[in-house]
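Format notes (please read before filing issues)

Several people have asked whether sequences and structure tokens are stored in separate files. They are not. Every record keeps both together, in the order shown below: the sequence lines, then the token lines. Line labels are part of the format and must not be stripped during preprocessing.
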Amino acid sequence: MSDNLDLINEYKEQVRILKQEVAELQDAGKSKDSANKRCLQKLEHSQQDLDQANKKITDLEDQLHKINKKDNEWNLY
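Then the structure lines:
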């Protein structure tokens, strides 16, 4: 009977340790999820900034093209 109690107590200790390890792994998973979410938000903001910069470049190129076209028209006279 004493052996059975020792065995039960050993199993209880192993279950406690496993529950603790599961909790630690869940916490680590939550931390990774949070880090991934922050990285994704940064990436989305970077993409928005890139899109805005590309639009500004296109607008400036269009303006430059119009200016050059006007200069060429003036040179014809």
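For reference, the curators noted about this record: The CA atoms of residues 16 and 77 lie 92 Å apart. The longest helix spans residues 2-76.
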